[in-house]
Amino acid sequence: MAMGQMNMDQVNMGQMNMDQVNVGQPLAVGWQLDPVLLGSLLALALSYALAVGPLRARLAPGESFPRFKALAFAAGIVLTYLTEGSPLHDLAERYLFSAHMVQHLLISYLCVPLLLWATPAWIWRKLLLSRAVRPVARVLLNPLVAGGIFSLALSLWHLPVLYEAGLRNTSVHHAQHLVFMALALISWWPVMSPLPELPRLDYGLQILYLFMVSTVLQLPLFALVTFASAPFYGPYIEAPRIVFASALADQQAAGVVMKVLAMMIFSVPIVVIFFRWFQESEPARGRPTQHVLPR
Fold first, then answer.
1. Which of 19, 147, 210, 293 is the most exposed place for a label (fewest CB within 10 A)?
2. This prediction's pTM
3. 205-211, long-range: CB within 8 Å, 24+ apart, which pairs?
4. Which domain holds residue 91?
């Protein structure tokens, strides 16, 4: 289904004026207890707890483990549930494309990097450097592949046939987001890798990479969503109007959120990388350029 091919009835429904906005109608929102969501998060948390706890002596003898990283991982799990399981989920699934865009950005740009950073290097080494996995990891975690596959997946995700499948089934929705989290992890690796065997980019290339991923590679999707003449998704066209006067206005807001919020979030690591790069390039310090984000 082409995004721009909507029939006239859908366009008219999507372009309601303000007096058609539903006010005072109770929203059907709540907290999620979906087994796909809860089972995935519990399995992830349990696996992490076992790895850094009773199995650490076997997996990484003599390796230290800072407790604050366990707190950071727990915070990542909680933030992921709040993004996926709080009333934000129902707003995104039933009412607002713009809320769904906020959900996507929180998952990809906050939850995933927090979980990646909180996972010790020796866990990643066990997961990624075995003889069977390492060749695949080298390909997928290459910056060109990592940035490209994430941006491509983000665009394909918004094809109506795929996007609406998630809107109409909560379990499918959560499963899609889990896949999206895996692709986001791949995309963050070139600037957050804890493994010298699968290293980060140099500082200058990290900045360029983040700019490309957050801005350049997403421009086509941003333009398509923001400047479309008709709304794309049937469920949002049919949904009660609770914030915006039309589904088209909601869609345009989603495009703005996608670009502005992404640029705001990515500006933080870009600034940190730049100042670390500047500090480590001072001759008086005499230190080699290594990593930018804390381990």
1. 19
2. 0.83
3. 205/143, 206/269, 206/273, 206/292, 207/270, 207/273, 207/274, 207/277, 209/143, 209/147, 210/266, 210/269, 210/270, 210/273, 211/266, 211/270
4. 31-280
